[in-house]
Amino acid sequence: MFRCPQKTLTTSRFSPDLPLARFCAPSGVTRRLPALGAMCAVALSLVASVPALAQAVGVSGPLQQQGAAATPAMPLAASAAAVNAGAPQSDFDARQQVLDRRTAENDYQFAVAQHNCYSTFFVNHCIGKARDKMRVVQADIRREQLALDDEKRAAHAQQRDQQAALQRAQDEANAPQRAANEAASAQAFEQKQQQHALDQAQRQAEAPQRAANEQAYQEKQRQHALAQAQRQGEQSQRDANQAAYDQKQANYQNQLDEARRQGEQKAQERADKTQRYQQKQEDAAKHKADVEERQKQAAEKAQQKQQQEQQQQLQQKQQQEQQQQDQ
C-alpha cells in the first residue's frame, strides 16, 4: 500500500539543537490544526518562563544555565523534582507553578502525538496509546496536586491554631492587668460618686447663706439707688415727676383711645345685629308668604282634585244609568 511521506516532525527532533519555535511556526501545521497552534504557544511561553522560575525558587546549576535553550525534549518532571528539591516545603506557589507547567506540557505532548498519529496506519490505536500515556501523567499530576492541597490546608490549619493559641496566651497574660484596670476604674468611679455627694451636700448647706448674701446684695443695691437719686437734687426729682405725669397722661390717652375703639366696635356690633335682625324679619316674611302661597296652591289643587272626583262620579253614575236603560 502506498503511504504518503510524513509531513510532521518526529518526536526525536525535539532537541536543544532544534528550537521549539522552528517546529511550531514555519511548517504550516498550526494553520491546519488550531488546537496544536494553541499548544505550541503555551509551550513557548513555558520554555521562556523556565529561567525566571528557577531564579525565583533559588535553583542553580544546569536548569538555570540552560535558560531559553531548554526544549520539550528535557522531561519536565525532572525539572519539577529539581525545583521541589531546592525549594522549601512552605513555598506552595512555586510548587503550584511546577504542576501547572507539567499539566501544560502533558497537554502539548498529547496534541503532538495525536497529530502524528494521523500519519500512521492504525490511527485510533495510536491515539489511544497517546491518550493512555497522557492520562498516566495526568493522574500523577493529580496525586501531587491533592498532596499539595492537603499540605496547604494543614499549613493553614496549623497557622490558624498557632494564632488562636497566641491570642489565648495573650488574653491570659493580659487578664491580671485587665482585672486590675477594671478594679481601679471601679474604685475611681466610687470615689467620684462620693466626692459628688459631698459637693452636693456642701452646696445644699451653703444655700441659705448664699440666699442671705444675695438678699443683702439686693438691699445694698436699692439703698445705693436711693442715695444716688437723692444726690441728683431737685432737678432730678422734677424730671422724675414730669416723666411720671407724662406717663399718666399717656396712660390716660391710651385708655381714652381704647374706650373709643371699644365704643366703635360695640356700635358696629349693634349695627350688625340690627341688620341681621332686619334680614331675619325679611326672611321670615318671605317664608310666610311662600308658605301661604304653597297653602293656597295646595287648596286649589285639592279643590280641583275634588271637582275632578265629582265629575268622575257623575260620569260613572251616568254610565250606570245608561247601562240600565240599555238593559
Structure overview:
The chain has helices at 20-24, 29-32, 34-57, 62-66, 76-86, 92-117, 123-231, 233-326. By secondary structure, the protein is an all-alpha fold. α6 packs antiparallel against α7. The chain is flat, with a radius of gyration of 61 Å.
Q: How much β-strand is present in the residues?
A: under 5%
* Largest sheet entry: none
How many β strands by DSSP? 0
Uncertain runs: 1-23, 25-36, 46-88
Structural class: mainly alpha
Mean pLDDT: 77
SSE order in H/E notation? Answer: HHHHHHHH
- SS field, number of helical segments: 8
Helical fraction: over 70%
What gross morphology would you assign?
flat
Distance between the termini: 142 Å
C-alpha-based Rg, rounded: 61 Å
Features:
327 residues
Topology:
Blueprint: H1 20-24, H2 29-32, H3 34-57, H4 62-66, H5 76-86, H6 92-117, H7 123-231, H8 233-326
Short description:
This protein is mostly helical and 327 residues long.
